[in-house]
Design a protein that fits this description.
Layout lengths: L5 E6 L4 E8 L3 E9 L1 H5 L6 H23 L8 E7 L3 H18 L3 E5 H7 L12 E6 L4 E8 L2 E7 L5 H11 L6 H9 L24 H13 L4 H30 L3 E5 L6 H13 L3 E3 L10 H12 L29
Parallel strand pairs: 1-4, 4-5, 6-9, 9-10
Antiparallel strand pairs: 1-2, 2-3, 6-7, 7-8
Helix pairs in contact: 2-3, 4-10, 5-6, 5-7, 5-8, 6-8, 7-8, 8-9
The structure holds 5'-O-[(R)-(carboxyoxy)(hydroxy)phosphoryl]adenosine and zinc ion.
Amino acid sequence: MTQTARVLGIETSCDETGIAVWDSARGLLSHKLYSQVKTHRQYGGVVPELASRDHVRRLPQLTVDALEEAGCLPTELDAIAYTAGPGLIGALMSGASFACAMAYALDRPALAIHHMEAHLLAPLMDNPDFSPPFAALLVSGGHSLLMQVDRIGQYTCLGQSIDDAVGEAFDKTARILDLPYPGGPALAKLAERGDPERFHFPRPMLDREGCDMSFSGLKTHARRLAEAHPEDAQAAADIAAGFQEAVVDVLVAKSQRALAQSGLDHLVVAGGVGANRRLRSRLAQALEENGQQVLWPPPEYCTDNGAMIAFAGSLRLRDPAALSGLEIRSRARWPLEELASPSPLA
Ligand code: KG4
Ligand code: ZN
């Protein structure tokens, strides 16, 4: 029989402070998010030192609020899970120190969670019957990965971006179009008013075998077009739509290739760009036509949040080898393939 467990999740890898309480029997009890968008907007991107300081400032009250909303006393927690990496090192260390201090005070285990594993598992929060094996498309500000998931903790990379991550390409293209930070959602909104066919964008690496991808050329292409059509609002919308359509085409085709190559028929999509509506509708259509199934979390759990960390922690808690000590294990770089069961964090 599996014991029920209640886990506090702490996410501080970038510019969002996320705290949540996950109960393995009752699901998500609470979820609090503080976004630093306003702090970083004036700089056009995340300023790491400001991010770390803001996490330190927000963590205590957000934790009190999350526990209160969950109706949970700190002593009723079974473990404290925190994002150990990858991410901005100062931001990660703010969350890790806070988590380890709580774990020490409460005499509970601290769980060092891989941010991309948490993204990957997030769609399972609402779909407990869905289980590996499946393929996963992870598209965030720092990563574009196609993974084969044989079981929780065992991940093989089928393909990845050889240059910019998808979210990064969205953000940089948005800057070229003078859109406010964070660029991805702003560009997607502008694209709704644009004609994706007015400008021809290439479909990088579709002619090459395998599942690797490349997005930096699309950004460069968008820059040239924007320079050729200054002060032209309709052209900006058409560039946004053309760029988005090219990205989506590549992601759909490479996801299909990953499924074919691995012989799998289920795809999980996660990470910030997984919130993109065009990507969601095109992927659903393409896969369903083939009798394949695609699963994603609600958009608010695609972008960074504490719920996915608490949930991943509850799954990792079942594996005694996953319990980390109070040593702070933050890692700015941490390939997902280095995670392995049954000793994922050794
Ligand atoms: O997963 P996430 O919240 O943070 C990282 O781990 O990086 O992903 C953030 C990225 C940003 O690049 C943001 O612009 C992008 O996801 N993003 C989107 C959308 N929402 C967020 N990109 C395209 N369309 C969206 N709707
Ligand atoms: Zn993320």
